[in-house]
Design goal:
The protein is built from 25 helices and 18 strands. By secondary structure, the protein is of the alpha/beta class. Among the domains are: 160 residues, Alpha-Beta Plaits (2-Layer Sandwich), CATH 3.30.70.270; 254 residues, TIM Barrel. It has an 8-stranded mixed β-barrel, surrounded by 5 helices. Strands 1-3-4-2-7-8 form a 6-stranded mixed sheet, sandwiched between helices. The protein has a two-stranded antiparallel sheet with strand order 5-6. The radius of gyration is 47 Å and the shape is elongated. The two termini are 77 Å apart. The structure holds ligand C2E and magnesium ion (2 copies). The site of one magnesium ion has 5 residues, from strand 14.
Length: 765
């Protein structure tokens, strides 16, 4: 407790320690003394002095404290009682019997209203925003406890005064139990409402009031003649203890407020006990007469329980409604949310299975705001939120009452239109676009946004909610990349839509560098040694698995991502090759480049920079350009090839012989390598083998004549390997030698005899 009354000055703490010790000594003296052995000096004057000191300490708390009223009132209340005790001692000096009511009664009874007000103030301080139901819980607990107390106190008092006493005497004697009962109602009720652990001050006060009530009841027993030693002890010690507790309570530190702590709802124990007590009193009354005051309190308890139940049922119903509304509402905009959209769509499709409602149809508009991210980035999320909040009122003004606008998430909205034709749906899209294009005034700035809208209809386009949303989303994507602000879903755009989505994903993957580079060895056909590797790009896609390069490279070209993609492969391949060189494997690495790279004026500089960064000799790098690329942009290619060759690196014509090859151009290109397409090998294995062999032999010879190294790709079996070796081809590459694979998985076979077919790597494409 010393720790708890930590904000009391030292002198005050010492004073309480002395008072505590005195109280214990008094308690001991009461036990030692027999019943009826009262000592006026101790039981009268000293007890009164003890109480006055405790009261003064209590009042002194009011000074220097911001919340003066409560300690002041509590202090005055207990002081009033202490003066009553002193007056009684004075009035009964020399064995005189004071009259009833006496001056002492006036001060004693003064205690009740003052402390009552203090308790109410304290409760209000702690229970600022409680609902009616919680207050009723407190009332049930308090009334029940008071009922029990009253059934003892009033019974005793009525027995003791009998019917002959003067009205003033009866009134005075009744005033005490009434005062106690009222205080007890507050104390127990408050304890049921205020979470105890957080409020030691309240618990101490409630305990003090309870001791009073019990002490007074003992007192009544004593005055009705049924005195026991225990009763005398309790009667003597109750009031000084209670006053000391009240006095200490004002110095206690209130519980710390912790916003993170879970808000506990007050327990049901005390209200439950209160209700049980009320019921018990009424039951006991059927067997043995209980005082009407207790009956009244018990009845009040049960009536309050009834009202409380009624409130609970009503509260539960409105809570269910609120929860439901919250679940389907977007918090920021107050519009419906994704859950509401799905619940409406699901209801529509479930209903549509019913032949009676088969005629009904629905349109879904999927709206995606343009430039929303920029607004968030430039003006802060507050501005973005404000814009979203303005959307609801603005857009709903162009909808019918039956059309539903929801926020699907982020900057995406949807409008659900029931039973309207496609003309109406496109009309809505037009009106929404017009509304969205009007400027938005956000605090200090005015911004403009646009939107892309996709329209899909059910049951024509889809027969379930997810499908319909997908169609509207695809149409929206198309609108986003196309010239129109809104698009209606058509079956033929489905593929397009997927492609567009893939472009978006590709863009993210390029930004995030989410690619891998695999390497396929090239073997020197004369020595059987691996002297080179070709770097091949791989895209591990979260949904589609490992996407082969031919499926995404054309997309990357279209989306202008080829430069970034080639830069990625070059960086990886050159750094890997440098690592091999450092590890004593002087391999050459071939990297495929595309037409876009050749048209980029800074390309050769960037290649030089990569080589420099990784300290790799230019001779270790070969850039592969497909024959079709060269033929398409011959003059540019010719010039860039010269630049690249000047850097000292090799340039290869990839897929040579796959298309309509024109041998005429070969002589004028500064290329260092000719890479025979797989089509050559296929031809070798089929048709007129003799003629085809002659063709391959002549091509290889031509390459050699032009100082080119000749590489054969697509070697899938030992026969092809042997044939190409015998035809004088320099290097061989193909699944028979090794699939493309990550650098760390690559086994670089040295002697030719060790070449064994590799196990098929599914991912290696
Ligand atoms: P490419 O440059 O002609 O690469 C050879 C392709 O043939 C690779 O396919 C390789 O896995 C495959 N291949 C290798 N040995 C065999 C074999 O024995 N049999 C068969 N059937 N195929 C074999 P991949 O990796 O799917 O690459 C396809 C094409 O994608 C490449 O053809 C190249 O034109 C392009 N590509 C790959 N990576 C890049 C890159 O980083 N940049 C650019 N611009 N294009 C790349
Ligand atoms: Mg290649
Ligand atoms: Mg090729």
């Amino acid at each position: 407790m010393a720790a708890r009354v930590g904000n009391a000055p030292r002198a005050v703490r010492v004073a309480y320690a002395v008072l505590g010790a005195l109280l214990l000594a008094y308690f001991a003296s009461l036990i030692v003394r027999g019943p009826g052995q009262s000592v006026t000096l101790v039981d009268g004057w000293l007890v009164a002095a003890f109480e006055v000191v405790a009261s003064v300490l209590c009042i002194s708390r009011a000074f220097g404290s911001r919340r003066r009223a409560i300690p002041l009132l509590l202090g005055l209340g207990v002081l009033s009682w202490s003066i009553g005790d002193a007056l009684l001692t004075f009035e009964s000096a020399g064995g005189a019997t004071p009259p009833v009511p006496s001056l002492a009664d006036l001060f004693w009874l003064g205690f009740y209203p003052i402390v009552y007000v203090a308790l109410v103030l304290l409760m209000r301080k702690h229970l600022s925003n409680l609902g009616a139901a919680t207050w009723l819980d407190g009332a049930v607990a308090g009334l029940g406890a008071a009922g029990v107390c009253a059934s003892f106190a009033f019974n005793t008092i009525l027995h003791s005064v009998g019917g002959s006493a003067a009205t003033a005497t009866v009134a005075t004697d009744l005033a005490y139990p009434i005062g106690d009962v009222l205080l007890l109602i507050l104390a127990v009720g408050g304890t049921a409402l205020i979470p105890g652990k957080k409020n030691p001050q309240w618990l101490m006060l409630a305990g003090a009031v309870a001791i009073n009530a019990i002490g007074d009841t003992f007192n009544l027993f004593a005055s009705s003649g049924s005195t026991s030693h225990l009763g005398t002890i309790f009667n003597g010690i109750a009031w000084p203890s209670s006053i000391l507790l009240i006095s200490i309570s004002v110095w206690m530190r209130p519980g710390q407020f912790n916003p993170l702590a879970e808000r506990r709802t007050p327990g049901f124990l005390l209200p439950g006990l209160g209700a049980g007590a009320g019921l018990a009193i009424l039951l006991v009354d059927t067997v043995q007469r209980v005082t009407p005051v207790a009956i009244g309190l018990a009845t009040a308890t049960l009536v309050t329980v009834g009202i409380r139940l009624g409130l609970s049922v009503r509260g539960l119903r409105s809570l269910t409604e609120i929860r439901h509304r919250q679940a389907i509402t977007d918090e920021l905009t107050g519009l419906g949310n994704r859950r509401q959209l799905f619940s409406l769509l699901n209801a529509f499709f479930a209903d549509h299975a019913d032949p009676e409602t088969i005629d009904r149809h629905l349109s879904l508009l999927y709206v995606d705001l343009d430039h929303f991210k920029e607004i968030n980035d430039s003006f802060g999320h507050g501005a973005g939120d404000e814009l979203l909040r303005q959307l609801g009122p603005r857009l709903t003004s162009s909808l019918r009452d039956t059309d539903v606008l929801v926020r699907v998430g982020g900057d995406e909205l949807a409008v659900l239109i029931m039973d309207a034709d496609s003309r109406y749906a496109t009309g809505v899209a037009e009106r929404l676009m017009a509304k969205l294009e009007e400027p938005f005034v956000l605090n200090a700035v005015t911004v403009r946004i646009g939107a892309s809208i996709g329209i899909a209809s059910a049951p024509t386009d889809a027969t379930d909610s997810v499908g319909l949303l997908r169609c509207a989303d695809l149409a929206m994507y198309r609108a986003k990349v196309g010239p129109e602000a809104f698009e209606t879903y058509r079956r033929d755009i489905d593929d397009d839509g997927n492609r567009l989505r893939l472009v978006e994903e590709l863009r993210d993957a390029v930004e995030g560098g989410q690619f891998q580079v695999h390497y396929q060895p090239q073997v020197d056909l004369q020595t059987g040694e691996v002297t080179a590797v070709e770097a091949l790009l791989r895209w591990p896609h979260p949904r589609l698995g490992m996407v082969p390069p031919l499926d995404f490279i054309p997309l990357a070209e279209e989306a202008g991502l080829m430069q970034a993609l080639t830069a990625f492969v070059l960086e990886r391949a050159v750094s890997q090759c440098a690592a091999w060189h450092a590890g004593g494997r002087p391999l050459t690495v071939s990297v495929n480049i595309s037409a876009t790279n050749l048209l980029d004026p800074g390309f050769s500089d960037s290649v030089k920079a990569v080589l420099g960064r990784h300290h790799l000799p230019a001779s270790a790098l070969v850039l592969e350009i497909t024959e079709t690329t060269i033929l398409r942009d011959f003059d540019v290619c010719k010039r860039v090839i010269v630049q690249l060759r000047d850097l000292g690196l090799g340039v290869s014509i990839d897929d040579f012989g796959a298309g309509f090859t024109s041998l005429a151009y070969l002589g004028s290109l500064a290329v260092s390598e000719l890479k025979l397409d797989r089509a050559f090998l296929t031809r070798l294995a089929t048709g007129d083998t003799e003629r085809n062999s002659a063709l391959v032999r002549a091509t290889i010879a031509l390459g050699h004549k032009l100082n080119m190294r000749v590489v054969a790709e697509g070697i899938e079996d030992p026969e092809a390997l042997d044939l190409l070796t015998s035809l004088g081809c320099d290097l061989g590459q193909g699944y028979f030698i090794s699939h493309p694979m990550p650098a760390q998985d690559l086994v670089l076979p040295a002697p030719r005899l060790m070449l064994v077919p590799n196990t098929d790597k599914a991912a290696a494409g």
